[in-house]
Write a structure and sequence with these properties.
320 residues; 9-stranded mixed beta sheet; TIM Barrel; globular; 30% helix
Amino acid sequence: MMGFDNKLLIKNNNQIIYETTNLQPIYLYPLNLKDYVDNIDSKNPIMLNIIKYDKKIDYEHFLSNKYFNKLKCVELLIDKDYFEAEKIINYLYKKNIMVTVNINNLCNIDDEFIKIVFNKVKYFKIFWDYINYDLFKEKLKLISDIKNSDSFILIKGYLNLDNINLYEEYIKDFSKLRVDIYQLSKELIPIGIANIGVPKKYADVIRNLEAKYNDSFKFISVKNLNELYYPRFELDSRNSRNCYACRLKPYLYNNFILPCKVNNVISNLDYWGVEDFNIFKFNKCGIECDDCASIYENDILNEIYNVIKDNNILVELEIR
């Protein structure tokens, strides 16, 4: 269950001292905010994101390191040169560690890979760029045919005004193909480009579809439909400078463990990355950052930590 109506409660001597419904279930699934709160002081990750593979790595040996002894979920980028992912998924499945796949281009994935590997996946995050729709649906049907009852399919696309009259067609097709959520997001504004206003008639179409498809299948979009692009973000005084995410959900890029995947980090692997688990100390994270890939986790975990650090607390996830 994705848990849109869940609530996180923190109690001290049976008195509620903190509660929030801001749980970001789509973003954190198949984990939840309580998983992060329960491990808030841990130096061992509960989530690992693998974004670039290295054929020289024995992943079974690598992931058996005690550094990963609290690992609950691994997300694998399925884009180019993804066949190393089969070994990793098979190992994780045997270890009862949940698997998420982040698929950039479903049309480029081999049919046999889908049939053999994807029945072990808990969460499918599939990006669609409105290209090759017929082929996209064929590939999606392969996933639908082997989807487990407890697995989840999210399709994400960027708002495209040229496709506004086709969204309901997509919604109906995705619903038939056992997709759980179709999420309409916005692209980050390209450098040097002015933002574009979204006419109200287009925004109204999206809002009406959200209201119409809000049951076992959900169509959801962003809160702000006034502009076409997301503005570029910089950390400021409103944001926490304590980085919990670098410890709890790091990234693996070849043999480098990274705190996140923002451009500055990916472009400076030797500065931000480590190859030795024993020196995995990202003291500069948050302090030297001007961008953040985990704003939600860092801000809300810092808020919660300030509540629980001096209390005898009980953290509950209330299912409603």
